[in-house]
Design goal:
Blueprint lengths: L1 H59 L21 H11 L3 H30 L5 H13 L6 H9 L6 H6 L9 H9 L6 H13 L3 H9 L4 H12 L1 H16 L3 H6 L6 H8 L5 H11 L7 H36 L5
Helix pairs in contact: 2-14, 2-15, 3-7, 3-8, 3-11, 4-8, 8-11, 9-10, 11-15, 14-15
């Protein structure tokens, strides 16, 4: 009897161990397949994203007379930096234009951060029956295409006046088209590039701010503006950093507002569009042939110089991203954009 019980116990334990081993193998097999699928998906996405960047290297670092050869796929036949030299000479010169574009983007970003943070704080913290209506209007401003407002904005700045005062004292209005102040006015009054999105982001962030901070500030005698500048704004570093970076990047590459309201301004985005317009291809190729004694350069040289110029144009943005990528991702997650 005891022997039979022992045999049954051994069989039961064996069956239990076999079942546990089977479940473990099954679970590990699922994890292995899932990991393989995830890694393959990540590699595929990375390749799809990086492929255009990888593809331009054998073009911009190749000798301009060898471009178009079927033998060139990934490695240049003769290494050369003529494309970069031509791009610098055609567009960048002494890089004054790039410095001016960077300065413009920084100033516009600072204005948008200041205006949008105050608007977002008001919408997120002040209790008013009109706040919901104003917030809906902000969302509508974001949804409405900027092209639909172009004619009215253009005419307003073409015949700029403040309550008829300029016309009353001077006899005529002021033409602000092709003046740099126009872009700053748009940003200051909330009509800059993607500015309604920034108001929404600040509003979401300040809405989640603990009310005890404001109550403590009011007890200490702070008013609305003191509370905003001393309490709310210092705690809004994640939202400020996110909005600053997005505003800087978008304004640095903007061609819509700069193209219509200040087309003759020193903006790198406009200079690139004008220099590398399709109608200017022959001029670029001729310049390369003349400057660098490359009579065999063809229209492929135009594409190479254009891509080299685009890479130089993106260099400041890439440097900024690599310097602050970790902090930027953390701040983006903690800002109101996902809440």
């Amino acid at each position: 009897m005891a022997a039979n019980n022992f045999v049954k116990a051994v069989k039961k334990k064996w069956n239990d161990n076999s079942l546990a081993d089977g479940l473990l193998v099954k679970r590990r097999s699922r994890e292995f397949v899932f990991n393989i699928f995830t890694i393959s998906l990540i590699i595929g996405l990375c390749f799809a994203i990086l492929y255009p960047i990888i593809k331009i290297f054998p073009v911009i670092f190749n000798d301009v007379e060898d471009l178009g050869s079927p033998d060139i796929v990934w490695v240049p036949i003769r290494w050369s930096v003529i494309s970069f030299k031509a791009a610098i000479r055609l567009v960048f010169g002494n890089f004054v234009t790039m410095a001016q574009s960077l300065l413009y983007s920084v100033v516009i970003a600072a204005i948008q951060v200041f205006v949008c943070s105050m608007a977002g704080y008001t919408l997120g913290r002040i209790k008013s029956k009109f706040n919901d209506i104003i917030f809906i209007l902000v969302i509508v401003t974001f949804v409405v295409p900027p092209q639909s407002l172009l004619i009215s904005q253009y005419l307003r700045f073409k015949q700029f006046d403040v309550f008829g005062l300029f016309k009353l004292f001077t006899g005529s209005t002021i033409d602000l088209i092709n003046q740099p102040i126009t872009l700053f006015i748009l940003a200051f009054f909330g009509f800059g590039l993607k500015q309604s999105l920034f108001v929404f982001q600040f509003r979401q962030f300040f809405k989640g701010l603990p009310g005890e901070l404001e109550e403590a500030a009011y007890i200490d005698g702070c008013g609305f503006y003191q509370t905003f500048f001393r309490i709310a704004l210092p705690n809004a570093v994640p939202a400020i950093m996110t909005v600053s970076i997005l505003s800087f990047v978008w304004n640095y590459g903007d061609t819509y507002y700069t193209g219509y309201f200040h087309p003759k301004g020193p903006y790198l985005s406009i200079a690139l569009n004008q220099t590398f317009a399709s109608t200017n291809a022959n001029n670029v190729v001729t310049a390369v042939q003349t400057w660098y004694d490359k009579p065999g350069a063809t229209t492929f040289a135009f594409d190479a110089v254009k891509q080299a110029a685009a890479l130089i144009y993106l260099a400041p943005l890439l440097i900024i991203y690599f310097l602050i990528q970790k902090r930027f991702v953390e701040n983006f997650e903690r800002s109101g954009i996902v809440g």
